[in-house]
Amino acid sequence: MTAATGGATGGAMDGVLRATGIEVRYGMVVAVRPADLVLGPGQLVAVTGPSGAGKSSLLAALAGLTPPSAGTLSVAGQPITGRDQAVAAGIVVIPQGNALLRILTAIENVAVPLVAARLPDARDRAEAALLALGLDEAADQLLEELSGGQQQRVAVARGLAERGSYLLADEPTSELDAGNRSRVMALLRGEARRGAGVLVATHDPEAAAMCDAELRLDEGRSTWVREDRPNPAATEHGG
Ligand SMILES: Nc1ncnc2c1ncn2[C@@H]1O[C@H](COP(=O)(O)OP(=O)(O)OP(=O)(O)O)[C@@H](O)[C@H]1O
Ligand SMILES: [Mg+2]
Questions:
Q1: pLDDT of residue 11
Q2: Is the CB of 56 under 6 A from ligand 1?
Q3: Domain that residue 225 falls in
Q4: Could you tell me the distance, in angstroms and rounded to a whole number, from the CA of residue 1 to the centre of ligand 2?
Q5: How far does the centroid of ligand 1 lie from the alpha carbon of residue 31, in Å?
């Protein structure tokens, strides 16, 4: 296991991402009703539910992007109250809609966050991530020259290249054919094997079935429909 953040003890990799009673409102709209979630190292968990159920809202709150209207969020017992803390805790997001820059090439899109983080091996990491997504030949093409599915794979490559402690992927396979969907799910599983906690929001029952557990949202209400691998780390910090 590679610890992306922290030392031998006490780093984010040693702890869990814990949301307690987390609620997201937009004015009068309650997008996520109070939900509890524990995401531990090595876990691959699906968040499912129909369009508008609150999946993206939950992920945005867990990433420190949207302030929850109630509840608490912590990593390894340290409170997360905004994006800066979430970044420091190694929480990486693959956003729905990809959020790529059309005026940059594929490899530049992948490398930008790595360069911003002053990583010396940004280009090597970006190349490796694009290769893993089958996009090595598209590396120097402008984003706007790529198909929707290729662009989605660039967004996945960008998330993987960051090697976070937690990876929150929002509909990362929505534009993909079956082969590429399997490839992306295998790479997300690889991130979990590396020691990351991985959460994937998906409409796709086949993608959800490849995960260890499934949290289903419906009109903001969350229910664990499958929790087949108890998380040993979940009790370590006692809440
Ligand atoms: N910025 C916002 N302002 C106001 N309401 C919002 C905002 N973002 C989302 N909502 C509302 O919150 C609810 C949940 O939206 P959310 O995007 O979290 O759903 P989702 O499960 O991700 O849907 P999809 O599968 O279509 O991506 C919806 O009713 C939506 O209209
Ligand atoms: Mg969404």
A1: 42
A2: yes
A3: 12-90+164-235
A4: 31
A5: 6
Write down the residue that tokens 């664990």 correspond to: 224
Say whether both 80 and 169 belong to one domain: yes
If one residue of 22, 23, 24, 26 were mutated to test the ligand 1 pocket, choosing by the most ligand atoms within 8 A of its CB, it would be: 26
Q: Do 183 and 66 fall into the same domain?
A: yes
| C-alpha distances out from residue 60 to 65, 73, 81, 87, 228, Å | 5, 12, 12, 13, 25
Q: Are residues 75 and 111 located together in one domain of the fold?
A: no
- Nearest atom within ligand 1 for CA of residue 27: 4
Q: Which ligand is nearest to the CA of 51?
A: 1
pLDDT tens-digit map of 20-33: 999 999 999 999 99
Does residue 3 form part of some domain? no
CA-to-CA distance for 205 and 208, rounded, in angstroms? Answer: 5
User: Is 6 inside a domain boundary?
Assistant: no
Distance CA 175, CA 147 (A): 10
Handedness of CA 96, 97, 98, 100 (dihedral sign): negative
Whole-structure pTM value: 0.90
pLDDT digits (tens, 9 = 90+) for 98-129: 999 999 999 999 999 999 888 889 999 999 99
> How far does residue 123's CA lie from ligand 2's centre (Å)?
30
What's the total number of domains in the chain? 2
The reply to whether 80 and 187 lie within a common domain is: yes
